[in-house]
Design a protein that fits this description.
alpha+beta; 5-stranded antiparallel sheet; 18 helices; 19 strands; about 35% helix; elongated; membrane; Penicillin-binding protein 2; PBP_dimer; Beta-lactam/transpept-like
């Protein structure tokens, strides 16, 4: 009996051992099958080095001095999940109105109606893309399971709206739009490159000063917009670029509206009398103007066919070229351009890039309104030549104007503008537009305009500013002009004894207010902006104020009398 029990126990033990062995074999075969499946039908797991794992998900953008302008960081988002309680029933414990009011108390800058609309919708959506931990705790305390906090990589702009039109923004899908975020998309996402920050040519100190003063000018004149650019005359580097009103790239909902439109690179304007120095320089360069004391009649409108060219004021019976620039005479500038001829003026304007989109890396670049020719050769009509000479009948961007002024004062070389910081070895050769002697003469004339003419309010002490005002009526219906809508511009360079930077300030439809003595022209609104910007940016851009130095204009001073123009 005892032997039978022992035998049955041995059999049971063997059976159990076989079952365990079979189970182990099954697990082993299953594992081998899965490994074979992964090897044959699925890709190998991604291999990442420690260095790659530490890379930011999107590369950093800095200004020329290393100040961070755009960087990626992990953050919480606020996500609304209408399926939090399944398919049936309300996803919210409280009413949508109560939840919206509670969120508004946490985020005062939010839109209540937009929050309410999203909370009543059956579609999941972001309620907030960037949430601080303390705010996440406050939301969690509301006790709403439908309000979730996914952890995501966010794009952060430490300077807020400063330089927004240069940078652009990144959407919720992680794609760059409008500015350098779009231009640099591949580089910023490339593992081989995104570990090294991209340095732009922008100096955020200059950018802040420019935006601040343009904003002040807008408020003082009740203008609908403003634009400005600061350009290195020798390298083509854009030190600051501002278009107002601006937007905050940290808020993609703001970025999707029309505030992203860039007035500096994408909007073309008739920039009026700021073209006069460019035209006079072309005439001097061609030998048409050799004696600056020669006088031109200026007391009567200049009749060309059925068209009459007029000045804003009667400046007397005659003016010479320096006086014409100081008083901003359309009549005399048109006569000089007529002597120069359409082909020569057209060639100069084309050499300055006025017949093509501005050279800049940004994707939004406006095409100029370039006058049509009257024959197969494309020659301009006589009246077209005259009106273009003082900035009518041709429309360009403020960046076109900045590059043209840089060529006029830097010795005569036009170079394309850039938003990348350039090493001295990377500066392009450019193309010659004016002779060096012509450039030297124009530096004198531009300085005289600020000392004795329409640019007096830009005369920042010690900075030897030179420049030209321009107040152009906006085109209206039926081919005419709207006399109540102006574009006021001041184009300047400093210091004129050795120019380093061009500064353009433009106001779109400024009004005459108490701050401008109820005047709407550039002498009263745009020129003062430059007069305030230059002293703010000069010291940290390497231009120290010096009242003991100036460009020598002693040979021209006897030719002119003091006076006021536009």
């Amino acid at each position: 009996m005892l032997a039978n029990v022992r035998q049955r126990s041995l059999v049971e033990a063997k059976v159990r051992a076989l079952v365990v062995a079979g189970f182990i074999l099954f697990i082993g075969f299953a594992a081998l099958a899965r490994i074979a499946q992964l090897g044959l039908f699925e890709g190998s797991p991604e291999r990442r080095s420690l260095a790659e794992a530490l890379l930011p998900p999107r590369g950093e953008i800095t200004d020329r001095n290393g100040v961070p302008l755009a960087r990626a960081f992990p953050a919480y988002a606020l996500w609304y999940n209408p399926k939090a309680f399944g398919e049936n029933g309300s996803p919210l414990v409280k009413s949508p109105e109560e939840v919206a009011k509670a969120l508004l108390a946490i985020f005062p800058d939010a839109d209540y109606n937009d929050l309410l609309k999203r909370l009543k919708s059956d579609k999941p959506s972001y309620l907030r893309q960037r949430v601080m931990p303390e705010d996440a705790n406050r939301i969690f305390a509301l006790g709403e399971p439908a309000l979730e906090f996914p952890r995501e990589n966010q794009r952060y702009y430490p300077q807020g709206s400063l330089g927004a039109h240069v940078l652009g923004y990144v959407d919720t899908e992680g794609h760059g739009h409008v500015g350098m975020e779009q231009v640099l998309e591949k580089q910023l996402l490339d593992p081989a490159q995104r570990g090294k920050p991209v340095a732009l040519s922008i100096d955020m100190r200059a950018q802040g000063a420019l935006e601040d003063e343009l904003g002040r000018g807008m408020l003082e004149t009740e203008a609908k917009g403003a634009a400005g650019v600061i350009l290195d005359v020798d390298t083509g580097e854009v030190v600051a670029l501002a278009s107002l009103p601006s937007f905050n790239p940290n808020r993609s909902d703001q970025a999707l509206n029309n505030l992203v439109f860039n007035k500096v690179t994408n909007q073309v304007y008739e920039l009026g009398s700021t073209f006069k120095p460019l035209s006079i320089a072309a005439a001097i360069d061609a030998g048409v103007v050799t004696d600056l004391s020669v006088r031109y009649p200026s007391d009567k409108p200049l009749a060309i066919g059925g068209f009459h060219i007029r000045d804003s004021h009667n400046f007397g019976a005659s003016l010479n070229v320096p006086e014409a620039l100081i008083h901003s005479s359309n009549i005399v500038t048109a006569q000089v351009a007529d002597k120069l001829g359409g082909p020569a003026l057209k060639k100069t304007m084309a050499a300055l890039g006025m017949n093509e989109r501005p050279y800049i890396e940004l994707p939004a670049r406006g095409f100029p309104l370039w006058p049509r020719g009257t024959n197969k050769a494309g020659d301009w009509a006589r009246i077209t030549t005259m009106t273009v000479s003082y900035g009518h009948g041709i429309a360009v961007t403020p960046l076109h104007l900045a590059a043209a002024y840089a060529a006029m004062v830097n010795g005569g070389i036009w170079r394309p503008a850039t938003l990348f910081k350039r090493d001295p070895s990377q500066i392009p050769e450019g193309r010659r537009v004016y002779k060096a002697s012509t450039s030297a003469r124009m530096r004198q004339l531009l300085r005289m305009i600020v000392v004795d003419g329409t640019g007096k309010s830009a005369n920042a002490s010690g900075y030897r500013v030179g420049g030209k005002t321009g107040s152009a009526e906006k085109p209206g219906g039926k081919g005419g002009y709207n006399r109540t809508s102006l574009v006021a511009t001041f184009a300047a360079a400093f210091p004129m004894d050795k120019p380093r930077y061009v500064v353009i300030a433009m106001l779109d439809e400024p009004k005459g207010t108490a701050a401008t003595s109820y005047q709407r022209t550039a002498a009263w609104n745009a020129a003062p902006i430059v007069g305030r910007v230059v002293p703010r940016i000069g010291p940290f851009l390497g231009v120290v104020p010096d009242d003991t130095r100036d460009i020598d204009i002693s040979d021209l001073s006897p030719l002119v009398g003091n006076g006021e123009g536009e």
